[in-house]
Amino acid sequence: MGNPVEVIPGFFQLTLVHNTGMAFGLLGGVAFPGKAWLLTAVSAGLLIAIVWFAWRAGPLSMMTVVGIVAMLSGAVGNILDRVLYGYVVDFLDLYIGSAHWPAFNIADAMICTGVGLLVLESVRDLRRESAGTGQEDLSG
């Protein structure tokens, strides 16, 4: 959409994309009345589910807390974009040659980082359980 500004030739550029869809532009080409508000409501519902999970889970490891905070901050950022503009502003474009990853923003990166941390912590928990050791939590 915008004129790209090359930052690292052949790999990374800044661009401007008005993402009316979901993550990675899914449903971006589909138009229907109230789409922005529906996607905002779905995002808010997921945000509430994450908070509920954290509230109900009891003591959490530091990695889990950081992952949840990263996901929440990213979700809030994207929700604000959608409420203010009716779309999410994406501007980071990674590519090799003519193959481009879908444009994304810092909020998307935070959500993906948070999910990655939760997956990593789950793998660590499984390894601890198989080794018979406990989990360190924030209270100790």
TrEMBL record:
What Pfam families does the annotation carry?
A: Peptidase_A8 (PF01252)
- Name the GO terms of the biological process aspect: proteolysis
Which keywords fit this entry according to its UniProt record? Cell membrane, Hydrolase, Lipoprotein, Membrane, Protease, Transmembrane, Transmembrane helix
Q: Which GO terms describe its cellular component?
A: membrane
Entry annotated with the keyword Cell membrane: yes
Provide the transmembrane region boundaries: 36-55, 62-80
- Signal sequence span is none
Q: Does the keyword Hydrolase apply?
A: yes
Return the InterPro entries for the record.
Answer: Peptidase_A8
What molecular functions are annotated in GO for this chain?
aspartic-type endopeptidase activity
Q: Which HAMAP family match?
A: LspA
Name recorded for this polypeptide: Lipoprotein signal peptidase
Q: Which organism is it from?
A: Geodia barretti (Barrett's horny sponge)
